[in-house]
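A favour, since you know our structure tokens better than I do. It will help me judge whether the discrete encoding reads sensibly. The space below this message is yours for that.
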Amino acid sequence: MPIIRDIIYGAAARGADVGSLCDKAGISIAALNDSEKQLDFVSAYQVWEYAVKMTGDKLLGLHLGESTNPTILGLIGHLMQSSPTLKDAFENVSKYGVVATDMFRYRISMQSNRYVLQFEPATLWLKQSPDSARHAVEQAMAGTLNVFYLLSGNRTYPAQTNFSFKRPAPLEEYERVFNSSLCYNTESNQLIFEKNQLEKNVLSYDKSLYKVFNAMLKEKRASRKELDKFSERLKKIILTEFNGQVPPIEVLASHMQLTARSLQRKLELEKTTFRAVSTTIKKELAKQFLNNPEVKVGYVASVLGYSEASAFRRAFKSWTNTSPRKIKK
């Protein structure tokens, strides 16, 4: 919840009403301070949609990122503050980011003697609400620069900044925030740094605290996997890594490093089947898409893997005993 809390409070500082924003997103104000609570997929991206609408700031994500501090990632932020270098700090975000959110992935790699930091929202998020996904990416990327400044005491700018989105207007704000070469319509969202830039020391590095926070996050990540029902893990993988389209069971099992039979047995232990899980996902996604008046039935059918809208309509009626058109009304 720290990420959502920062979005809501940041929007409030720009004119949005906290109570109204929480109501529209379907959460309580008290829940904002619950570090263990996470919003469901739809509520999470709707927070962005409502925040942008209430503030009227078309670059809200970029502007919120400028004041981001490590606490936005909760316990991960404490680990970052105890890390030896900026590189180590971001590696920890990449390693433990799943503890903070299911909707976003952070990665770091070395290419041509440069560090490449990657920021990717779930593919389904990009399909269902691309504008809110863009805001989240810009907050994360601009926020990374501000966090690096807070950690090292020095401004650290990338040699190049890549966005998978179309070139925005006005461009001047992006030039001011990132102070680097900007590229758009790229394959992924990246901050690319010269090696020495991320080898700067973190001022608050503490070896003892680093060990403590690292151990806590390892345990937290492990316990979270154990608490998640296998069927729920299956849903998350389909939503975030298969664009919401249910793959053949053999493909999904291989992705999870299982055999199809092992996958089926795990579901049987929870008294469900692969078919039942698949149907639930398709039903939930269909309703979410159809609640958006701008989304056409044909598009929903395509996203869910149906070759024809008529096949989707028949399936939807079998799930809900009503038609997609009535849901859209």
User: Anything to note?
Assistant: The chain has 17 helices and five strands. The two ends are 32 Å apart (CA to CA). The longest strand covers residues 104-111. Strands lie at 104-111, 114-121, 160-162, 181-183, 190-194.
